[in-house]
Amino acid sequence: MPKMPRIILASRSPARRKLFKELSEEFGFDFECHTSGYEEDMSARKTAPALAKFLAYKKAEFVAHTYPNSIIIGADTFGTMNGKKLGKPKSITDAKNIIRAYSESSMKVHTGVAVISTADHGTIVEKLTDHAVTTVHFGKISEKDIEEIIQEDDILNVAGALKIEGKSGKHIHTIHGDYHNVIGLPLFQVEAMLKEMLKKV
Containing domain of residue 110, as a range? Predict the structure, then answer.
């Protein structure tokens, strides 16, 4: 990978930061994190791919003015099931209902990724957006299982009440698509987007 300019990951997600660190260590570049203050609007776009890319871009755009002459990565993850978009649960009851619906069923995990570059004063000069989707199939989830997931996973802070690296992960039967996407960052796409952006800056 070519020499990197200043790289900013606009995210507060520990899982997303951990994944991006793996990518940075593999290719030998440093990065900084800046939590985006953009307030997600799940009704901003009609289709899941369009919404995912829109939210990712808005997260990156929100911090752009702070980082001139930089590359900023924004990402947003949510689920869909039976045509319904699943963001972060509004309450424990909401989380339980979401998890209950997963039992012997499936859902799709969508992640939008935006990579933008800035010039002086944080003006955006280039942007790339992409979308990844992974289908997750679940086995049977009992009420006892739901209580375990609620107690041990940080469930209110993850989209679709799904933390694959937590207790809910053991109830996943099969995954079709990028595993890293379920955690919150499709690394292959991010890598390709970074390489493409570096050709432009």
Answer: 6-200
